Metallo-hydrolase
Amino acid sequence: MPQTENEDNLKVSILASGSTGNATYVETPDHKILIDAGLSGKKLEELMNSIGRTLKNVDSLFVTHEHTDHSKGVGVLARRYGLDVYANEGTWEAMGSRIGKIAVEQKHILEPGQVQSLGGLDVESFSVSHDAQDPQFYDVHYHNKSFAIVTDTGYVSERLLGTISDADGYLFECNHDVEMLRMGGYPWPLKQRILSDTGHLSNEDGANGLMKALGNRTKRIYLGHLSQENNVKSLAHLTVQTMMQGHDFAVDHDFALLDTDPTQATDLTII
């Protein structure tokens, strides 16, 4: 059944997800927001156009942390489109001059554990374990629906699970295959960083985190933030699917297991 513009729903598209750039688009009838802008303004507009939308209608941008693959386009988008930009103090400090000047009235502080309400859309922030200054991700709520983004974390804590459990949809990290990473060409200190508790979730870690987090409401799971060097989309998908099926989760029956891409947006979909 086609979606119409006046439907009162929470809709999401993963515009880009991967080690080269990340951005997620979320819309309700009254608000259009981005979570992260880790690509150029030109590329983000192309991705928005591919789902029948434009950056001109986006009103708010929520930044998770200062790493370039999440913040590259923050300054450009803020200046070009007049967006309200939300991040915690540590992230604002770390982004600093790298994103250029943003008008003070556009800069907003949202600390971990706080909720920013935009009409009926609530954006809840939560801390993750990553080697950025003060990384946080977001669980968006609209009416009785929620969509949680969990990437760039070295592990899934019990506190994090308490925030994101039983969401209707997830974007969940499956950054690397452990053996590909260990056997690959990265310098050993970088391998140690990725594998550490302040690094990234492996395919197996992602599967284990999802099995603890999802609930009866969960209908869509997007696997995200795959490394270009240390993972393959089909391998990540198969690993998560096999592990979940091995624990009696009805993959592609109770919920859809979906892939993301660093250069191609997923369909704009009702959550």
About this structure: The chain has one domain: 11-270. Residues 11-270 form a domain with the Metallo-beta-lactamase; Chain A fold (CATH 3.60.15.10). The mean pLDDT is 96. The two ends are 15 Å apart (CA to CA).
